[in-house]
Write a structure and sequence with these properties.
The chain is globular and about 55 Å long. A hairpin with a 2-residue loop joins strand 1 and strand 2. With about 325 residues, it is mainly α. The protein has 15 helices and two strands. It has a two-stranded antiparallel ribbon.
Length: about 325
């Protein structure tokens, strides 16, 4: 029974579901702070739960739609749908049940047209990405902006639209695009026809990266755009100079992590894990600066929470504290 539950949790990728859950919660808290609205702790709790469910829904939907492709590659042999430990029929039932539960919970908390519109945008983009990311370059890139709509969902609990929250949503969406291009696309570079690194000329010979310049520049443009947006958000929030300098320091750390990652670029996911992890952690530190007006310690608290969540769930599900191959 325990092993069966573990398989369902593996399929839902619960080990990194906390990121989307935090986005829902932090956006609600952030928007409430901007408008001097008192927090509703029941809503905060339910939003975290909805975020977890949203991530799990996405994982189930992704693995179901990618099943034919996943069966062809060795590194996916451990996935529950590929190995057959969970049937496609059962997975589909759970996927639809979760989606219904999410919609009901969201609309019970915020029965507004704006909330429903943002929610539809989030799930439409997520579904389109899962279905067409291997056959459509536009969807492969833009599909990751589903996280931006998730942020707007939480925002709509307080106000239908806010410029600062909208900018933060763009930052989160760009980070999703960056992570997808760096991680998912590199992992699948040999198999995918529609692939950003490959389209930019990146090739591997004897596992050594060649023609890296265009790929590197595109990724740096994304990251620098994120930096400018975050710094602009801090400026219009009128935060102290100290926090702006800290943001610059975190961006510098992220830049160093990116340099190390690109210097050791490989489509061997196991070899790249430490570089991915370092890049992601420094990205979280940097992006979390948006929330310093709520609490100056938020960047550190968020990173510690993410590390704790990852390590506990990885140990439970995979027997390792390190990031698993998914």
């Amino acid at each position: 029974m325990v092993n069966r539950v573990i398989e369902y949790l593996r399929l839902g990728r619960i080990f990194n579901a906390e990121i989307l859950a935090l986005l829902y919660v932090l956006t609600y808290i952030f928007t409430a702070n901007l408008y001097n609205v008192k927090y509703d702790y029941l809503i905060i709790t339910l939003l975290f739960f909805v975020g977890l469910l949203s991530h799990i829904w996405g994982a189930y939907n992704n693995d179901r739609l990618d099943l034919i492709t996943d069966k062809k590659v060795k590194y996916c042999s451990h996935k529950p749908l590929v190995s057959g430990t969970i049937s496609i029929k059962t997975a589909m039932f759970i996927e639809y049940l979760i989606l219904i539960l999410i919609v009901v919970l969201i609309l019970l908390m915020s029965p507004k047209i704006s909330t429903l519109g943002y929610l539809f945008g989030a799930y439409l983009l997520a579904y389109l990405y899962n279905k067409y990311n291997n056959s459509n370059m536009f969807i492969n890139v833009i599909g990751q902006m589903y996280a931006s709509f998730a942020i707007l969902v939480s925002m709509s609990f307080i106000v239908n639209f806010d410029y600062i929250v909208f900018l933060s949503a763009i930052v989160i969406g760009l980070n999703g695009i960056y992570l997808n291009v760096i991680e998912a696309d590199l992992k699948d570079i040999e198999g995918d026809i529609i692939n950003v690194p490959k389209s930019l000329g990146l090739r591997f010979r004897n596992n050594k990266a060649e023609n890296i310049t265009k790929f590197y520049l595109v990724n740096e443009v994304i990251k620098v755009s994120m930096y400018l947006l975050v710094y602009y958000i801090l400026y219009i929030e009128n935060v102290e100079l100290t926090f702006r300098l800290i943001a610059i320091a975190f961006f510098a750390l992220n830049f160093i992590a990116r340099i190390a990652m690109f210097k050791n670029l490989s489509y061997d996911r196991e070899k790249m894990k430490p570089y991915f992890a370092l890049q992601e952690i420094t990205s979280i530190l940097f992006i979390s600066m948006i929330y310093v007006i709520v609490n100056p310690l938020f960047p550190i608290i968020i990173v510690l929470f993410v590390l704790l969540w990852l390590s506990i769930w990885n140990k439970i599900l995979w027997g390792t504290y390190l990031r698993p191959q998914v």
